[in-house]
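Fold it.
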Amino acid sequence: MRRPARLGALALLVTAAGCATTSPGGVEPGAPGRGGVVTAPAPPPADGVDVAAPLAASGPELSVDFERFQLPNGLDVVLHRDATIPVVSVNTWYHVGSAQEAPGRTGFAHLFEHLMFEGSANVPEGAIDAWLEEAGGGANGSTTTDRTNYTIDAASNALELALFLDADRMAGLLDAMTPESVDGQRDVVKNERRQSYENRPYGLALPILGQALYPEGHPYRWPVIGSMADLSAASYDDVTQFFETYYTPNNASLVVAGDIDVAEARRLVTQWYGPIPRGPEPPPQTVVTTPRGDETRLVLEDQVQLPRLYLAWPSVPQYAAGDAALTALSQVLAGGKNSRLYKRLVYDLQIAQDVYAFQSGSQLGGAFYVIATARPGTSADDLRAVVDEEIVRLQTAPPSARELERVVNGVESSFLDGLESVGGKADQLNGYLTFTGTPDFFEEDLARFQALSPRDLTDAAQSYLPLGRRVALSVVPAGQPALALPGSETAVSDY
């Protein structure tokens, strides 16, 4: 990631209650505690309500006006006017991420996230940042398994500059790219990998989990940043071919939001992007799936002070049936200081420094995580015992209506917060367009949570969180494998 990326509205709803991860392999620290394990308390009362009944919808309708059109070259365009403040956001999503890579050729999408800021046919190296700074703006980018996005935020009178810069790299990046520039950014990415993975405490945990969760051939098996060996082995021709295949107008979507005249913005988009030729259709993607039949226990000895337990289950794609229920379930488990796991592990038993849970739905699949860092004197198995007790409680009896209401209220608040940012709306419009086919999915997205009943969360826990079908990774201090879960095998990462 070039700079810390902005969170869109959907990401905000997950982070609001404190359950999101930060950079790969790490989580924000929680409150300290200390020693002891007791049995689980009794399930909370159901508050005298029908556990199968959804909560009543509340709050204002969420709708964002937009104009959508497609250029003859296939570029999908969304325009949204928000004249609250005189700024604009140009937000481009290329529908390529690490999932479009191949074994032995990983890390290309993230590499291009860097290369796209190095200049293009009519933009000298370093000019993107310099010119935008003069215009009171800036640029950013980020890469995931399923897409790469590029954002330019600037004063509204710099709209044409922003569109020119973005269109020029789509049309003319290869005119400026050289083997030397690729090698330079390759070294930057490799150093980023060292800082975020190899040399960071717990940094290899998520790559190990991905390799264990997904079978050979699945495109989520390797980390977005790629493997060090693949980054080193990639030739200039390999990199060029990847760009020509995926960085085309017919494999991209563009959102222009902010203080714009819609007709003028449409004219400028057509002027700058219209002449770019259509590219080849990206190759179809096949996904290998193998249902998990047992629990895999792994241990990684690392340069860390405290054991950390990672529990991961295969789950469902973003917006699929079960995605909202699993997100809400993660909040009941570990969404803030009133959540079940935080209260037991951190406050009552004082055996954990922190605990997090989250549903990570992507385009081709998903995973549900529970992550807890132990206090001194506590083993990973002590943490696992309490986590399993709480999961079994939710599989046995629905949460209270009060617990679910707290989650839904947080979701509603986060949606409204996300709508206050022009850049956040632009990114969310692009995300909805890419993953649901319509930019204005705000109301439908929120309705998924408002329609949940307590019983839905229990059904999700039963369906997707079986204790015997998951990956359990213990990251323990070097030389102390006894702090891992019993029966763990040594973890080895291929990436």
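Confidence is low (pLDDT under 50) at residues 1-49.
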